[in-house]
Amino acid sequence: MAGISIWQLLIVVLIVVLLFGTKKLRGLGTDLGSAVKGFKKAISDDEQDIAKDKQDADFEREALFDKKEQTDRFTAKDQEKTKDNDRV
């Protein structure tokens, strides 16, 4: 037999309970559960922050692109004015 049978697993669990006691195991389970919950919350918070950063970056990129177009329009108008002034 290569695997662990159900009886061997039960014996190991019984030895662990006898060594540590139910209070310590319950406290360990509670601590482990809170650690997993905190880890999941931290991961979801990071994902939300990343999504928010991507939105902010896209917004800034669009704003900068709009400003570049506005600058190009003003530059073209200034060039036309200087050409008109040169003609006079």
Automatic annotation (TrEMBL):
GO biological process: protein transport by the Tat complex
Highest taxon, organism lineage: Bacteria
Subcellular location: Cell membrane
Name of the protein in question: Sec-independent protein translocase protein TatA
Organism: Oceanisphaera avium
GO molecular function: protein transmembrane transporter activity
Keywords annotated in UniProt: Cell membrane, Membrane, Protein transport, Translocation, Transmembrane, Transmembrane helix, Transport
Location, primary (coarse class): membrane
Transmembrane intervals: 6-22
Quaternary state and interactors: The Tat system comprises two distinct complexes: a TatABC complex, containing multiple copies of TatA, TatB and TatC subunits, and a separate TatA complex, containing only TatA subunits. Substrates initially bind to the TatABC complex, which probably triggers association of the separate TatA complex to form the active translocon.
Leader sequence segment: none
HAMAP family: TatA_E
Keyword Transferase assigned: no
Role according to the record: Part of the twin-arginine translocation (Tat) system that transports large folded proteins containing a characteristic twin-arginine motif in their signal peptide across membranes. TatA could form the protein-conducting channel of the Tat system.
